[in-house]
TrEMBL record, chain A:
The keyword Cell membrane applies. The chain crosses the membrane at residues 20-40, 81-103, 134-157, 177-204, 216-237, 243-264, 284-305, 351-369, 399-422, 456-477, 484-503, 509-528. One of its GO terms (biological process) is transmembrane transport. Pfam families: BPD_transp_1. The keyword Transferase does not apply. PANTHER family: ABC TRANSPORT SYSTEM PERMEASE PROTEIN P69, PHOSPHONATES TRANSPORT SYSTEM PERMEASE PROTEIN. Keywords: Cell membrane, Membrane, Transmembrane, Transmembrane helix, Transport. Residues 77-261, 343-529 form the ABC transmembrane type-1 domain. This is Phosphonate transport system permease protein. It is found in: Cell membrane. GO terms for cellular component: plasma membrane. Belongs to the binding-protein-dependent transport system permease family.
From TrEMBL, chain B:
This is Phosphonate transport system substrate-binding protein. SUPFAM superfamilies: Periplasmic binding protein-like II. GO terms for biological process: transmembrane transport. Keywords: Signal.
Length: 537, 316
């Protein structure tokens, strides 16, 4: 074996110009946003407010725990669970139906139809759950459907998109073989595509359930009951001990949903070895599906939902009342000017929030990631950071906005940072999970070769991590645009301030204009982030 | 012997038992349809009875206390009128107005402005009663001690300070203060960086205490309650008190009058004005509302609020 081999040609390393252009563009937008938040034009910090902030922070150590309040919280927790379960179930059902209309598989080469159906999604997706809740409240009154639909509609739209992508991405051999054998398109998809996509669909459904718990709390803030409702009441009087008790209850719920979802996802990713025998059902997955169905049935009973309210005469009357008041949209110059200013603020807030969350999430990802085989000290540190991230996302953004307003001067910045802190809670966890999936070998070999810890991370982990992290950050950017409405409801800047003002004045025509602007903004950000992702891929 | 070859093997059994479980759950769920929801009263009432009288209150002062002790008010009212009374919790000013319009709430404790909004959106609504203190209600302007301002009746010095109102449609935390500022020549939408909306009276106090906003305005009743409890930060200075105006009142919707009879408004007014601080059960209700007694009221008491609301674009 002495054949002469040509030495391997090293790929020419060069900078990718397109990536540089997008990167520099990103930095410029961040600079513009920070300037807009007044960071370079005078003081933004209010050191005198540290005492008020301290009251909030120190109450974390002494949450309210008298029996009466815990009883109130227990009942509220059940309501939140029921909303989350039914909202997620509705979202999965809507997503399954919608995916058919959105998949490239359905449309084939008819790109126009596909584009139209995707743009139609922008309306349900572009509005925050809390906004849907406020609108539905005006039509359905105090009916538990408000909470279920407010979660189910926007989540359903997101789920439909993800489901369609999953269906489009599975191997198509079976599907095409069935088509060639003369099967109809429907049955070919059912037998050729669905089985291979089933694992991904199941994983994502459970992920949605986890998110729905947090959304159910946000809905409580607008009066739909549950933990968020109790939190909002205590928040209005700044009873921080009670606020923290509600936050801990929520964190516990999120943790449970997370553990369940994680077990299912792990099993889907690494199925049990089939062995030599005929395939049997996986008891864990069967249990999860049956358990979820049981939870849904219980939730339906607990909330006492009746489909009759949806078609009741009163519902239609109220729908007519709101639609007549809301159409045509207001278009006077003053309003449009205010909308334009608020839209710029909103974009700047979302950019600052995402930049802060992404940078911090990367910073803590190395420690937050689970590392099997590490010592107990490392485990405790990791668990502590993961718990801190959980708390960051369990405290609703309006609460962050007020407590940050104690230590910052009024403006766009408190709202932006509030969103950033909350998004860090979400993104930190996702980035940590991405870190766990990175191939450990490059880092290990660098370390054995004598690289420092930081060096090993910078050259062994970061390059592999940057792609998924940017994709996650760009996805959360669109979510952050919708979330600015939430901090705005408390007057912390952005288009949410305008929205809450117009809603408080029952100026429905102006509400239509503002909502249309929000939908357009989130659509624009979605398109931009899609193009960025393509360029970076 | 391969297990799959046997019919009725473990695969099929798992399948059948889970189907049975799902079926049982569905039956249980449907059987539970007659249940009342923990978040709302079921909208479908049996036609033979008038159903309960649904009462609510805007979340204003100490909402957590009021909303969690609602049993007190509901029981007292139910005993006195001999009807079923149900307390419906609400967290949002605008939501309370909308729910009154949709008929989900029959009798609501509204602020001055929200009462006007609700009455204009719900033809046939009748004001029932107000507290003794609501005939002459006041707001107080507060400033942070670092501003160096001494208490005064002159509101002009506030114009140059970072200023926050309370909730956007609060009568005492926004509407009337804006009116009195205008009267003294201060633009109510001015202030450096624009006015803030803290969301609640307590948040206003905390934000002025922190110095984030140098000045703010809130309900005098809340201020006095916090001062009596020693909860006001030493850096908050009481700067000025507004002239008197009408504020909170109970408003009854037309749907309840249809269901319970034409005399319902009079019976309700009679109940509220008859509450006596001497009676221990009555005293509990009065204390919950921070009232010495309730007195009758009428729609014309709120004409001034409606006019100012229109000027500020809060009433359409």
């Amino acid at each position: 074996m002495t054949a002469v081999r040509t030495p391997p040609v090293a790929p020419r390393l060069r900078r990718d110009r397109r990536r540089w252009a997008w990167g520099l563009g990103g930095v410029a937008v961040l600079g513009w946003s920070l300037a807009g938040a007044g960071l370079f034009s005078g003081p933004v910090v209010n050191p005198a407010g540290v005492r008020q902030f301290g009251r909030f922070a120190s109450a974390a150590l002494s949450p309210a725990h008298d029996a009466e309040f815990l009883g109130v919280l227990a009942e509220a927790t059940l309501v939140t669970v029921a909303y989350a379960a039914l909202g997620a179930a509705l979202a999965v059902a809507l997503g399954a139906i919608g995916a058919v209309g959105l998949a490239r598989t359905t449309w084939g080469r008819r790109r126009a139809g596909w584009t139209v159906s995707r743009s139609l999604l922008a309306v349900p997706r572009g509005l925050h759950e809390a906004v849907w809740g406020l609108l539905l409240l005006n039509v359905l009154g105090l009916d538990p459907w408000v909470g279920v639909l407010a979660i189910g509609i926007p989540y359903g739209a997101v789920t439909a998109k993800v489901f369609a992508d999953l269906l489009d991405e599975v191997p198509r051999g079976g599907y095409e073989a069935l088509l060639a054998a003369g099967a109809g398109r429907g049955s070919a998809a059912l037998y050729g595509l669905l089985p291979s996509a089933a694992g991904g669909l199941l994983s994502y459904s459970f992920y949605r359930l986890e998110c729905a718990v947090r959304s159910a709390v946000v809905l409580g803030l607008i009066g739909a009951g549950g933990l968020g409702y109790q939190l909002a009441l205590s928040f209005a009087s700044l009873r921080w001990e009670q606020v923290w008790a509600a936050v801990y209850a929520l964190a516990a719920l999120c943790m449970l949903a997370d553990l369940g979802g994680r077990a299912v996802r792990r099993r889907v990713a690494a199925p049990r070895p089939a062995g030599g025998q005929a395939p049997t059902r996986d008891p864990l997955l069967t249990g999860a599906v049956v358990g979820s169905l049981a939870l849904m049935a219980w939730s339906w009973w607990f909330l006492a939902l009746t489909p009759a309210t949806l078609t009741a005469g009163r519902t239609l009357d109220q729908l007519g009342y709101v639609l007549r008041a809301a159409w045509p949209p207001a278009a006077d110059g003053d309003l449009l000017a205010a909308v334009a200013v608020a839209a710029v603020d909103t974009v700047q807030m979302s950019v600052i929030a995402i930049a802060l969350a992404t940078a911090s999430a990367l910073g803590v990802s190395g420690l937050a990631a689970r590392r099997p085989g590490a010592g107990p000290g490392r485990w405790a540190l990791g668990a502590g950071i993961r718990f801190a991230l959980l708390l960051l996302r369990a405290v609703p953004p309006p609460v962050w906005a007020l407590v940050l307003l104690f230590v910052l001067l009024p403006g766009v910045l408190p709202g932006a940072l509030a969103l950033g802190v909350y998004t860090l809670g979400v993104l930190g966890r996702l980035v940590a999970e991405a870190t766990e999936e990175v191939d450990p070998r490059p880092r290990a070999s660098l370390r054995v070769a004598g690289a420092s810890r930081l060096g090993g991370w910078l050259y062994g982990v970061l390059p592999a991590l940057s792609g998924p992290v940017l994709a996650l950050a760009l996805y959360r950017w669109e979510v952050a645009i919708r979330d600015t409405v939430l901090v705005g409801l408390l007057g912390a800047g952005g288009i949410g301030v305008l929205l809450s003002g117009r809603i408080a004045a029952f100026d429905w025509a102006a509400v239509t204009t503002v909502l249309a602007t929000i939908v357009l903004l989130s659509l624009a950000v979605d398109l931009l982030s899609e193009r960025t992702r393509t360029a970076l891929r | 012997m391969p297990r799959a070859a046997r019919s009725g093997g473990p695969v099929a059994r798992v399948h059948r038992s889970s189907l049975l479980l799902i079926y049982l759950l569905l039956v249980a769920a449907l059987a539970g349809c007659g249940r009342t929801s923990p978040v709302s009263d079921s909208a479908e009432e049996t036609s033979s009875t008038a159903g309960p009288l649904r009462i609510g209150a805007i979340p204003d002062q100490d909402p957590e206390v009021l909303q969690r002790l609602y049993g007190t008010v509901a029981d007292s009212l139910a005993d006195a009128l001999d009807v079923d009374v149900e307390y419906v919790p609400v967290t949002d000013y605008a939501a309370a107005v909308s729910l009154f319009r949709t008929g989900d709430l029959d009798l609501v404790w509204f602020g001055g402005l929200t009462g006007v909004q609700a009455r204009l959106q719900t033809p046939g609504a009748v004001p029932i009663a107000q507290r003794d203190i609501d005939e002459e209600f006041h707001s107080v302007f507060v400033v942070n001690s670092a501003t160096g301002l001494a208490p005064s009746d002159d509101l002009a010095p506030l114009a140059g300070l970072r200023f926050t109102y309370g909730s956007e449609t609060s009568t005492s935390g926004r509407l009337m203060p804006a009116h009195f500022l205008t009267e003294q020549g201060v633009e109510p939408g001015g202030f450096p960086g624009g006015p803030g909306f803290s969301g609640s009276h307590d948040a206003t106090l905390a934000l002025v205490a922190s110095g984030t906003y140098e000045a703010g305005v809130l309900n005098e009743q809340v201020y006095e309650a916090r001062a009596a409890a020693g909860e006001i930060d030493p850096s908050v200075v009481r700067y000025a008190r507004t002239p008197a105006y009408h504020d909170y009142h109970w408003l009854l919707g037309p749907g309840a009058i249809d269901r319970f009879g034409e005399d319902l408004p009079d019976r309700l007014t009679g109940y509220f004005t008859g509450l006596s601080a001497e009676d221990p059960a009555d005293a509990e209700v009065l204390e919950l509302f921070g009232a010495g007694s309730f007195v009758p009221t009428e729609a014309s008491n709120y004409d001034q609020i409606e006019r100012i609301g229109r000027d500020l674009g809060l009433v359409n």
